[in-house]
């Protein structure tokens, strides 16, 4: 195989492979990107989409190492830290996942600026750390319409066990079902 085309020309391909469920092709492309690409945004997106496209079963140590490097090199970009937190969480490294978010807060990236996927990742991280009350609050703050179908399916599948656990304890319906206004912003202080 020759070199990959310019990274800007294949960004669409990553999303297409995820949507089509072509995980082998996605993994192959991601591995090639990890070895050849110098575009940090494309690398981050490839790692993120590979992780969610494979329902969290496609994570490699190389993906985690690259995500760590990106988060360290570009700490001001929440999406880099969110991808790293997601990889840690899916690898059951919950404390490290939470530390990645705390670093975002420390450098001045407030929780209110998070994308819907970053909020869903944070909800997953909070639940994985046993922070059920902040999780319940965060899970109602996710704007599901701001995600792709693949993202919605992935995060709802991952968050569903925690939501049902909350439902059983409170007797209330889970926050992800039957809610129309999921886009409200949460103050940064609520996550501390």
Describe the overall structure:
It is built from 9 helices and no strands. The chain has 192 residues and is an all-alpha fold. The chain has a single domain, classed as Serine Threonine Protein Phosphatase 5, Tetratricopeptide repeat (Alpha Horseshoe). The longest helix has 22 residues. The protein starts with 10 loop residues before the first helix and ends in a 22-residue tail after the last helix. 36% of the residues are buried.
Jot down its keywords.
62% helix, globular, mainly alpha, single chain, Serine Threonine Protein Phosphatase 5, Tetratricopeptide repeat
Percent helix range: 55-70%
How many beta-strand runs?
A: 0
CATH class: Mainly Alpha
Query: What pattern of helices and strands is seen along the backbone?
Result: HHHHHHHHH
Major sheet, described briefly?
none
Radius of gyration: 17 Å
Estimate nothing, just give the exact number of structural domains: 1
> In the CATH scheme, what's the topology name?
Serine Threonine Protein Phosphatase 5, Tetratricopeptide repeat
Distance between the termini: 49 Å
What is the count of DSSP helices, taking H or I runs of 4+ residues? 9
**Overall pLDDT metric:** 74
**Which spans of ≥5 residues are poorly predicted at pLDDT below 50?**
1-7, 173-192
What would you say the CATH architecture is?
Alpha Horseshoe
Structural class: mainly alpha
Percent in strands? under 5%
Shape: globular
């Amino acid at each position: 195989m020759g070199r990959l085309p310019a990274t800007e020309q294949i960004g669409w391909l990553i999303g297409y492979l995820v949507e089509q469920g072509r995980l082998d092709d996605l993994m192959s492309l991601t591995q090639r990107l990890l070895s050849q690409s110098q575009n940090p945004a494309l690398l981050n997106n490839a790692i993120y989409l590979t992780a969610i496209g494979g329902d969290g079963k496609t994570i490699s140590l190389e993906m985690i190492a690259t995500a760590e490097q990106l988060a360290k090199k570009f700490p001001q970009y929440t999406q880099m830290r969110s991808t790293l937190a997601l990889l840690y969480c899916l690898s059951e490294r919950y404390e490290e996942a939470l530390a990645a978010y705390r670093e975002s807060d420390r450098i001045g990236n407030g929780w209110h600026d998070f994308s819907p996927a970053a909020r869903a990742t944070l909800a997953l991280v909070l639940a994985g750390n046993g922070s059920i009350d902040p999780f319940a609050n965060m899970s109602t703050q996710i704007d599901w319409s701001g995600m792709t179908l693949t993202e919605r399916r992935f995060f709802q599948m991952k968050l569903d066990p925690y939501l049902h656990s909350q439902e059983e304890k409170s007797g209330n319906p889970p926050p992800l079902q039957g809610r129309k206004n999921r886009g409200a912003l949460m103050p940064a202080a609520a996550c501390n």
